[in-house]
Design a protein that fits this description.
single chain, 308 residues, mainly alpha, globular
Length: 308
């Protein structure tokens, strides 16, 4: 138990550190845009990506992210998914002080309690048997429909975000990134299964592998946009909630999973939902989070269109 738990917490810390470094790189790239040309785009980070690729901080963030994936793989090797997945949610607890360091203000007790409520809610949800079920053979027709629905949902969220303030804008973009990462996980499973059973040639001619690249790339862009336009801790919290939620929906509708109907799992799911509501409400009304959001919106990649 000790080794997978230690690796799981290490992975959570590295993922949080990677997000903080990537956010720092985005803010630095935005500061170098003296003419503020990026802010006129719907997703300003897209305009800045060439500058990001040349930054050591951004590359350090990616190396840190790779280290997190290696620790996660090691934790999954020595421990079960049910043990490791809830541990990874603690990245929010690591991201909170890293985000507060940007505004030189230690998180107050209220923010810690809100972050613990969100982490506890997601961990409780993931601990329920079958919470993110992706075992079995998927229905590909339903998967295509799910992809189209996900794309339409992301487009709608991004359109709504254009008319919102920095905090809600960042939250909606983070939710879109969470959807992308959940779809990416499903495509990763299909691609890995295809490689093992049908070989490289068959996998290269199948569409899930290409969609894996698209969803991963889209999640990368949207994640950077969320980090660089609002609060880091709020963005991490939204992604941590949306990702397993969408994975659960995919498991039910695409992978043929059957939801648990016993009183215990239902009570755990209800308690998880209550914790998430309390935590999100607490972070949304946190003065520290709002201060961080104002600072990021001024110096980051919050789009001007429709708001200023």
């Amino acid at each position: 138990m000790v080794l997978p738990v230690a690796l799981g917490f290490t992975a959570a810390f590295l993922f949080a550190a990677s997000a903080a470094l990537q956010r720092r790189a985005v803010l630095h790239a935005a500061d170098s845009d003296s003419e503020h040309r990026a802010s006129t785009h719907r997703l300003p980070v897209l305009w800045l990506f060439r500058r990001l690729l040349r930054q050591r901080v951004w590359l350090a963030g990616w190396m840190t992210n790779i280290g997190g994936f290696c620790c996660q793989a090691g934790a999954l090797h020595f421990g079960s998914v049910a043990l490791v997945q809830p541990l990874l949610v603690t990245q929010l607890l690591f991201a909170l002080p890293m985000a507060s360091a940007a505004v030189r203000q230690w998180p107050p007790l209220r923010d810690w309690l809100a972050a613990m409520a969100i982490s506890g809610g997601v961990a409780l949800f993931l601990s329920v048997e079958g919470a993110a079920p992706m075992a079995g053979t998927p229905d590909r027709q339903r998967l295509v429909i799910a992809v189209l629905v996900a794309a339409a949902t992301i487009a709608t969220l991004l359109q709504i975000a254009q008319r919102q303030g920095p905090l809600l804008y960042s939250a909606l973009v983070a939710a879109s990134a969470g959807i992308c990462y959940a779809m990416s996980a499903a495509m990763m499973k299909l691609t890995a299964d295809s490689l093992l059973t049908e070989g490289i040639a068959a996998t290269a001619t199948d569409w899930p592998g290409y969609l894996l690249a698209v969803t991963t790339g889209a999640g990368l862009v949207l994640g950077h946009q969320a980090y660089g336009s609002g609060s880091l801790s709020a963005a991490v919290a939204i992604m941590s909630i949306v990702n397993p939620g969408v994975s659960f929906t995919l498991g039910l509708l695409v992978f043929g999973a059957v939801p648990a109907t016993e009183p215990g799992p239902l009570a755990a799911a209800a308690a998880a939902g209550a914790l998430l509501v309390v935590g999100v409400f607490g972070l949304a009304h946190s003065p520290a989070v709002r201060s961080e959001t104002r600072s990021t919106a001024t110096h980051g990649v919050y789009p001007v269109r429709g708001n200023v």
